[in-house]
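One example given next:
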Amino acid sequence: MTTVLLVRHGLTPLTGPVLAGWTPGVHLDERGRAQAAALGDRLLSVPLAAVVTSPLERCRETAAAIRERRDPAPPLHLDEQLGEVGYGAWTGRELRALRKEALWEVIQGRPSAAVFPEGEGLAAMSARAVAAVRRWNAELGPDATYAVVSHGDVIKAILADALGLHLDAFQRIGVDPCALSVVRYGVRETRVERINDTGGGVDGLVPVQPTRRSRARAARASRGAEG
């Protein structure tokens, strides 16, 4: 199974009070850098085939912390399809003001219908993020473990899809800054193994070398899926 480590970026000065969106120049603050470094240390024993990140600075800085101290460092890939929601005219506004907008109730109650003014719909974001993960799964292969560094709503949408939930339920999922969530994708099944983990051990994420019997079983399952 392909194992995907979903990581939200660490804290920034805007995390919480302001909807940063695609605002350029939003970097991790001291707290976020400490979070990212701690996560990098925690994941050091887990071999990574790649680190795929949103192109925004806060995600790239978190990705750099995950790759640090690895020799060799896993390949780094920037993927706009895993970037933040296009919040349009809401970008840069304070959340306390946005909560008074009529659209806020739609976002909380029926997010699949929410489209940001001059921006993107949450359903469109979900479709492109899930498609990106599946594309990387295919490219990196069924035995790969890799990290995706992205944003809260994007990760929630990927998790909702993996759980078989309608997008309208994705607000029930919590994803904190620098939290780790884990999804395993197989030929016939998808398993969500962690959500919003901010301190658990990672021994269970270290892959076990496949035996000849398990490789043969996987090959038979793959041929059956193709038929």
